[in-house]
Design brief:
single chain; 169 residues; alpha+beta; 6 helices; globular
């Protein structure tokens, strides 16, 4: 089973502002006062066209974070911390990337974590070792850590296996 999402994430008020600015943006409420806007193909095309900076990728490790979309994130971050996350998993192996912005500049990241099956240890192993890319961003944005669940699961992001699943809930 796969997991492939690309979305903006942050506190509900900030994400509402972003969603109200773009015609194709749809806000999805998560837990703990966070919300997300999936970066659908229509929204990405709209941002790339209207920001008109470049469709070239802004950072290595991302599939959809163009320089134009990064400009949108930078502008949105003038009112608070906003993050951008991507996942690309199939059968437990894959990668995730995350970055956050505040006051028009990169606040944290860009980070990428890859997950692969370790045949000798018979378990999935993250590289680099330690906090995953997305959790690093979420905790920095104010999500409280718990002993029983990581930040990604705490917000309920695991149930959204694609951008389309965000919009069907």
């Amino acid at each position: 089973m796969g997991h492939q999402i690309q979305c903006f994430i942050g506190k509900e008020e900030l994400i509402r502002e972003l969603a109200n600015t773009w015609i194709y943006a749809q806000k999805v409420d998560l837990s703990a006062g966070f919300s997300a806007v999936p970066l659908t193909d229509h929204l990405a095309a709209d941002m790339n066209e209207l920001a008109n900076l470049s469709t070239k990728l802004a950072h290595e490790g991302f599939l959809k974070l163009s320089k134009s979309i990064e400009l949108v994130l930078q502008n949105s971050s003038n009112n608070g911390i906003i993050g951008y996350i991507e996942t690309e998993y199939f059968g437990g192996s894959g990668s995730q990337s995350a970055i956050s912005y505040s006051m028009g500049k990169i606040r944290n990241g860009p980070y990428t974590t890859t997950t692969d099956w370790d045949v000798k240890a018979l378990k999935y192993v993250n590289t680099p070792i330690g906090e995953t890319a997305i959790n690093s961003i979420l905790y920095d944005m104010g999500l409280k850590q718990t002993d029983y669940m990581d930040g990604f699961d705490n917000l309920g992001l695991a149930k959204y296996r694609s951008n389309e699943k965000f919009l069907k809930r």
